[in-house]
Amino acid sequence: MEQRKIGVLGAGQLGRMFVEAASRLNVEVHLLDVGTTAPAKQICSSDHHIDGKFSDASKIEELAKGVDILTVEIEHVDAKALQTVQDKGIVKHIHPTPKTIALIQDKYLQKRFLSGKGIPVADFASVGPEDAESSQAGAAKIAPLQVQAIDEAVKQFGLPLMLKSRTQAYDGKGNYVLKNVEDASKAVESLGAGSRGLYAEKWAPFVKEVAVMVVRSVSGEVRAYPAVETYHENSICHSVFAPLRHNDPAVAQRAQDVAKKAVAELEGAGVFGVELFLMSNGELLLNEIAPRPHNSGHYTIEACETSQYENHVRAILDLPLGSTALKVGSSAMLNILGVADLDADKAAIEKTFAPVVASLGVPGTTAHLYGKSGCRRGRKMGHITIVGNNDAQVRERYQILVDALDIAKK
Ligand code: ATP
Ligand code: MG
Ligand code: MG
């Protein structure tokens, strides 16, 4: 059916689930990532994959030469190189656009953009120089300016204060929760001592974290998946519950509306993951957007009419979008996070995968393992989706998996 080829920057677990969806539609995918055994490459046989970094301009150009459309499974790519391959006419379509990727990869610019468009976000302020490209050479000069700016932000927003790296953040790794103003230099030190652009966010004492996947077509149509509850531990997504339950059913609708409004302001097609904070007064604040399929949307593979991965394929190929509706009464997702520090620690690897073994005896569950060889603590090694007729049934099934992990850890 489809003659066009897609190139993907990144070949991790999101790429792996993307190629599953693409292969069902006979769409050829070329992957760029380091090594030959990256999770997505393992299940997508091709002589056209490229061994290299998605932040390497020459490798991006090499990938672009062999495909019709480029997309990303991670935002930490060289957005300038993407713009260049498009400007040179090497590839015609890049989704989302390099401009959108560049905007999103700098969380401070992203926040400024969204608040400028009237999207509710936590109050925030720049920390130190506005120019994110503060060079290593200037780091010694920049760090004291950042400490001074943190003092100002504490006066403005109070404590605790959330300090965030503007770029290269994931799983909370670029975040620092400042509890005392005296710790400002320690915070700057731990976040990169002046060599990294930072910004401050007012603490959001949310009651729940919410996420909404949104798919955007080439012509700008936006469709939202159901709002879901995401539960994080140590800033890493632990579980997702779909749909979002709240005594006020309007909350889920409002979350979808905010997410759609935000994504409608961006350029380019594809799936976007929108993270939100639900406050005690029912207010929703947008935390951040991912310009790609997202952990909080894994459940859509088993629980929705069209998965986030298939809709990403359809959107970037300018094919009709699929329904985003739930096709089951209720669903949950449990991440399989590494509990081992050493690859060689066989006992810890067994603990990590204990919920997967348990899931084999639980109806309505589907395990997805990512084929990662290194099992570091907190690393996303796989996930399990649970579906059922109602929340009670899904919670019961979910609990068996969580209990299996707790027992294994004892
Ligand atoms: P991701 O892996 O989702 O890309 P990230 O490293 O970009 O994460 P954030 O999403 O900004 O980091 O923050 C990680 C987590 O920290 C959030 O999911 C939330 O639990 C908490 N958090 C972030 N900002 C705030 C805030 N302003 N107030 C309170 N908690 C926050
Ligand atoms: Mg992030
Ligand atoms: Mg996040």
From TrEMBL:
EC number per UniProt: 4.1.1.21
Catalysed reactions, semicolon-separated: 5-amino-1-(5-phospho-D-ribosyl)imidazole-4-carboxylate + H(+) = 5-amino-1-(5-phospho-beta-D-ribosyl)imidazole + CO2
Keyword set, alphabetical order: ATP-binding, Decarboxylase, Lyase, Nucleotide-binding, Purine biosynthesis
ATP-grasp domain ranges (all copies): 111-317
Pathway of action: Purine metabolism; IMP biosynthesis via de novo pathway; 5-amino-1-(5-phospho-D-ribosyl)imidazole-4-carboxylate from 5-amino-1-(5-phospho-D-ribosyl)imidazole (carboxylase route): step 1/1
UniProt GO molecular function: ATP binding; metal ion binding; phosphoribosylaminoimidazole carboxylase activity
GO BP field: 'de novo' IMP biosynthetic process
Top-level taxon in the UniProt lineage: Eukaryota
Family, similarity comment: In the C-terminal section; belongs to the AIR carboxylase family. Class I subfamily.
Name this protein carries in UniProt: Phosphoribosylaminoimidazole carboxylase
Organism ancestry: Eukaryota, Fungi, Dikarya, Basidiomycota, Ustilaginomycotina
Section of the entire sequence shown: 1 to 410 of 627
